[in-house]
Automatic annotation (TrEMBL):
Catalytic activity: 4-amino-5-aminomethyl-2-methylpyrimidine + H2O = 4-amino-5-hydroxymethyl-2-methylpyrimidine + NH4(+); thiamine + H2O = 5-(2-hydroxyethyl)-4-methylthiazole + 4-amino-5-hydroxymethyl-2-methylpyrimidine + H(+)
Name of this chain's protein: Aminopyrimidine aminohydrolase
Family membership noted in the UniProt record: Belongs to the TenA family.
PANTHER family: BIFUNCTIONAL TH2 PROTEIN, SI:CH1073-67J19.1-RELATED
Xref: Pfam families: TENA_THI-4
Protein function: Catalyzes an amino-pyrimidine hydrolysis reaction at the C5' of the pyrimidine moiety of thiamine compounds, a reaction that is part of a thiamine salvage pathway. Thus, catalyzes the conversion of 4-amino-5-aminomethyl-2-methylpyrimidine to 4-amino-5-hydroxymethyl-2-methylpyrimidine (HMP).
Pathway stated in the Swiss-Prot or TrEMBL entry: Cofactor biosynthesis; thiamine diphosphate biosynthesis
Keywords: Hydrolase, Thiamine biosynthesis
UniProt keyword Transport present: no
The protein's Enzyme Commission number: 3.5.99.2
CDD domains, per database record: TenA_C-like
Annotated source species: Ancylobacter koreensis
Domain Thiaminase-2/PQQC: 31-223
Amino acid sequence: MSDGSTFSAHSFSAHAWGRNLPTYEAIRTMPFNDALAAGTLSPEQFRHYMIQDAHYLIAFGRALAIAAGKADDPDGLVQFAEAAKVAVVVERSLHADFFESFGVSGDEFARTPMSPVCHHYSSFLIATAHAEPYPVALAALLPCFWIYAEIGRDILGRAVRPNPYDAWIDTYAGEEFHEAVRAVIATTDRAAAAASPGELTRMHAAYRHATQLEWMFWDSAWRLADWPV
């Protein structure tokens, strides 16, 4: 993590980050991200990643919209409704640029099903957003925001430039994205402060599972994973 200043010492986010630091370190040093920073990641691996990420963002947007509907104050409603819009409209626009650059047609995207990991992660987020209370839904959504921000900054600090993946690096290392992530962390901590002990336990379980799935998502792209049967 960059500096530890994102949260207070006794917040949910501080505990969740600390508990899952080994998994974050495994993500930070995994072959996919090392190769992306070095500019040596194959176009085929990046295309696999971008197609699956475009599928994932639709589900992520749906889960954010559900969380917005469960928000306990108007600020949260606006925050996560806007985040859902960004996930589906703005980030998909970025994906469209990548699709053009890396030769992915709209037909190819439509024909390509979710990978097993993408399907699992998408289903997990939507199910959690539907079935769990607001604080647990936020804990499940938080790793996607936070880990991308930290990985983006980490890769920016060691990336070979120019890099075929400069646009990806600049998006997730940029201050605009980090400002949004800090706001999600703050909202999650406020929700956790009012959560019951049982809800806090489920928050930590949801955060841990989503963090594990972040590793699995990148690993899946590295291996060009598909359905085995």
